[in-house]
Amino acid sequence: MAPTVSFLLIIFISTISYISSESVIRFPSEKDLSGRFHKVRAEDDLYCDSWRLAVETNNIGPWKSVPARCVNFVAKYMGGERYSSDSKVVGKVSSAFAESVELDGDGRDAWVFDIDETLLSNLPYYENNGFGKEIFNETSFNDWVDKAEAPALAASLDLYNELLELGFKIFLLTGRSEHQRNATETNLLLAGYDKWERLILRGSSDQGKLAIIYKSEKRAQLVEEGYRIHGSSGDQWSDLWGHAVASRSFKLPNPMYYIP
Amino acid sequence: MAPTVSFLLIIFISTISYISSESVIRFPSEKDLSGRFHKVRAEDDLYCDSWRLAVETNNIGPWKSVPARCVNFVAKYMGGERYSSDSKVVGKVSSAFAESVELDGDGRDAWVFDIDETLLSNLPYYENNGFGKEIFNETSFNDWVDKAEAPALAASLDLYNELLELGFKIFLLTGRSEHQRNATETNLLLAGYDKWERLILRGSSDQGKLAIIYKSEKRAQLVEEGYRIHGSSGDQWSDLWGHAVASRSFKLPNPMYYIP
């Protein structure tokens, strides 16, 4: 064999041998070579994952928009398998709790659901509106609500149907307003929800109230009517905390916006 | 050039060209070839990350030990940069809130800290005890407490010192018992904590109470004494919820154990 051939063979074999020694090898891409891109992304991912946890545990407190450095992270999270998996696990633990409840059978065993980012997903809207980067725009969101096109959150639809089978009465308690009743009902039915006991929307006397106050008052009314609120599902702590809280509250993930 | 050389060159160049087209390439390693190892690990990581979120948001409710499939995940999380980053972000948002509080300056502005997995880290103990895989063993944990060797959680030590500088009175409210007072004080001092207003441990009348009850009662006593509890930091919801709660509560991460 000519020396050139031997030389090339040695390079080739040692390259392949190096490649095979690890399952994943990183080679410089254009982006790597262009500078700090990957380092910054990795640091952002670490920080933004911690920011997201602090949002979900309510450590952050009130916030108006997703931090600029976390917008890509949130977009990736919401569109990827993590959001879906996180929602599914919440659905499973809710369902395990529901199965453990001894229902009285008097028609007063209740479960309360929030709607947006709980039963319905507004991800198609937020995909076109910066994934929480922009401050909430009521006009454009209301236009989206009127379209009645929001898909169901798959994990919540499964839970909803199981609760009905178990015999729970389902109450839908939303921050949406009375004038959105028709669009909301249409959307829920199109998304596969059915047989709710009552859909509670903000009436004229509820306007301007913090969600945590408005929702607590409505739950208190249900308790006064004799309902036992065993479970409550929502993506905001203001769906769940306050007074007349459920025996068990289930917080669905939502790193896109905050409602006080 | 001889045909053999040309042939080898073409293979070599096309291999390198393929490698360069993406920044990360996966080649089969022994583990990949051996079967489902990587797939199972990836599925476990996705599930266990969702399980951890459900723990941190208290969706899971009471649990006795880390699920078997998540023990490796928890070990990796606790020992890696994510636990450290998550704790740091909680410290930063706590500190931002503390700076926003207008202190009265009458010596009644209070902050309440839990101790274990809040001020002190028992990670060296849990590293030797399965990272939450095993059900809590009071005897071996008490032996560890007596050693007074737990290091500070770095993020909490920074917050603690800033709170002192801002003028907060610091109360340490722990589920540890009175007989552990000396070991606890020694450990806190060795870890760098100093100048607390009061260290509150379980007395004989507190034994057997749920943590959420015991801690609520002790906070209520502070409020009766005229303290305004602006902030509270703990790794368990039972450190933070109940009654006489702080104006703002900060939940530190802990996927290793649950205290009701």
UniProtKB/TrEMBL annotation, chains A, B:
Coiled-coil parts of chain: none
Pfam families: Acid_phosphat_B
GO molecular function terms attached to this record: acid phosphatase activity; nutrient reservoir activity
Source species, domain of life: Eukaryota
Matching InterPro entries: Acid_phosphat_B-like, Acid_phosphatase_pln, APS1/VSP, HAD-like_sf, HAD_sf
Family membership: Belongs to the APS1/VSP family.
Name recorded for this polypeptide: Putative Acid phosphatase
Organism: Lupinus albus
